[in-house]
Amino acid sequence: MNHNKIAVIDFGGQYAHLIAAKIRRLNVLAEIKQPEDPTETFKEYKGIVFSGSPALSSFGEDSDYNKEIFNLDLPILGLCFGHQEIAKYYGGTVIHGKQEWGRADLHILKKHPLFEGLEEVEQVWMSHFDSVSSLGPEFEELGYTVLDVNSEPHRYAAIGSDKLKRYGFQFHPEVDDSINGHVMLKNFVCGICGCEPSWNVENFLEEKLNQIRTQVGDNSVFLLASGGVDSTVAAVLLGRALGPDRVHLLHIDHGLMRQEESTRVIKAFKELGLGENLHFVDASEEFLDALKGAIQPEEKRRIIGNTFIEIFEREAEKRGFEKFLLGQGTIYPDTIETGGTRRADTIKTHHNRVPLIERMIEEGKVIEPLAELYKVEVRELGEMLGIPEELVWRQPFPGPGLGVRLLCSDGSSELNVEEFESLTAEINRSLKGYNLRGIPLPIKSVGVKADLRSYEHPALIEGDASWDNLLEAAGKIYKEVKGINRCVWNLGPKLSGTVRPLKAEVTRERLDLLRRADQLVMEGLKNHGLLREIWQCPTVFVPLEIDGKGSEFCIIRPVLSRRAMTATAAELPAELIKQLREALLSLPGISGLGYDLTSKPPGTIEWE
Ligand code: XMP
């Protein structure tokens, strides 16, 4: 079936994916396109949305993209940066300034199809540095925004030309804080562009089953089955289309899995009817050998990635998989280059490039049945295919597994006495007015700054404070103290002496203990019904001795997030914190327990 489609032009960051995902929720297929794509690309679409951009500015020099798009006889809606580009192209001006951030009231100035069904004032969400300050001759102002009672109205927040079918919003209708943003998008997509809402996951399933059968013909498919959501849904979908006897699965245990994970994965695939051709390799020894002596996070990642590829190639060749098609659980965001964090799927990215797979791609022997879907759609499809809820809604788990959550050290302190003292003084200056005190930890962990990875010290704070005060104090520290990118709340005994790094590598003993700790945390979340609400909760070990005791500082990191690009620390119920404190602190060798309060950015979700 031919669906009406909208093209979303990606000017960077995560905005374009948010817009496309929201439009798909309206049952209209939206696809991401690049600003330099040739004009012909857009002819199959019913309308275009220009996304915002965290990095580009409409102010000053001309932005560089295919301006011929403006010659197309298709409606265009520009958002934020896109809005400014539309205003500028048609003779308006953009100034640097009048920055706004946060919720604002949109005052709608006239009845217009874009605002059909809405009130005169609607809450929207703003985030911009530049502003439109005048309009070209064919445009009119459709609305202005007011941030709060003390601020001046911000003119030209919604603009349009019905003659040209060009529109712009300075605000972001795609974010949830723009309460009726979805209505505005619907008015544009279904009203102004005239799209029929015919696309949904149910139709997708029917169409995909036929496509798979056509592409695979009489052949069989093999795929790597980690047990994560994407590979599980891909495997079941392929099985549904082709029959289980034509789907071969390879599960590699790299030894960095959770407790009993491989057993669970194998059992699940058997229950899903895919046990017939399930191949299992226990490669944990090989991985541990390869990781001997590795301390630095990037080095560990590289070793894990390379070892995985070696084993995968060897096993695939040994089992004669080369004659089959290769199935991959690649999902839509993985297929598109964006300005966002593309490093997330290191192992997957590596897989896509190994010689065996490159050869197969060239020969047209790779099938990626989920490549058009977002995660939430993959989950919906998984439910439709009858995959149990606990598998479909599993929290994400990184490809390199516990390898990224088990920090290593050569035992030397990454802070000298002066640095320790000066950071301690600065941290406590930031904590003034709160009933809290803190120190820097003598190791570094990963974070993000302006889309780049950074390694800085975490701060450890202790004392009594409400959750809101803890978050506020943590935010102050990592904003004000240079060299600190995280803040951890001490749940263990009060600090009385020193915190010292110990020499530690990836070993089976450390992994086994981390597995036990992780298991306790996951069970705790499950018992409190929090597995779905909490996006992810890594349990992390840092080799620190505290006050002369133990060798592993354990940190729990519950976060709320929607797509892992940004995240905030999640508040756990007091009862659960109490249970975890008792259980985790009584594990052998644990020197203390911390609760990570950091948002992303500046922290990342994982430690490393
Ligand atoms: P960070 O730590 O960058 O993680 O905030 C964002 C999301 O990506 C996951 N993650 C990975 N997933 N391979 C994966 O498949 C990886 O190497 C990897 N590293 C991080 C992380 O768990 C979070 O959901």
Regarding CATH, which class of the largest domain?
Answer: Alpha Beta
Q: What structural class should be given to the helix and strand makeup?
A: alpha/beta
General form: globular
Q: How much beta, percentage-wise?
A: 15-25%
Give the proportion of residues in helices.
25-40%
Describe the largest sheet. Answer: 9 strands, mixed
Question: Which fold name fills CATH's third level, the topology of the largest domain?
Answer: Rossmann fold
- What small molecules are bound in this structure? xanthosine-5'-monophosphate
What distance lies between the first and last C-alpha atoms, to the nearest angstrom? Answer: 46 Å
Q: In the residues, how many domains can be counted? A: 3
Overview of this protein structure:
There is one protein chain. By secondary structure, the chain is of the alpha/beta class. The chain folds into three domains: 5-192, Class I glutamine amidotransferase (GATase) domain (Rossmann fold); 201-401, HUPs (Rossmann fold, 3-Layer(aba) Sandwich); 409-596, GMP Synthetase, Chain A, domain 3, CATH 3.30.300.10. It contains 16 helices and 27 strands. Strands 2-1-3-4-9-8-7-5-6 form a nine-stranded mixed beta sheet, sandwiched between helices. A hairpin with a 2-residue loop joins strand 17 (445-449) and strand 18. It is globular. Mean pLDDT is 92; it is low at 338-350.
Keywords:
GMP Synthetase, Chain A, domain 3, Rossmann fold, 608 residues, globular, alpha/beta, seven-stranded mixed beta sheet, 16 helices, nine-stranded mixed beta sheet, binds xanthosine-5'-monophosphate, 27 strands
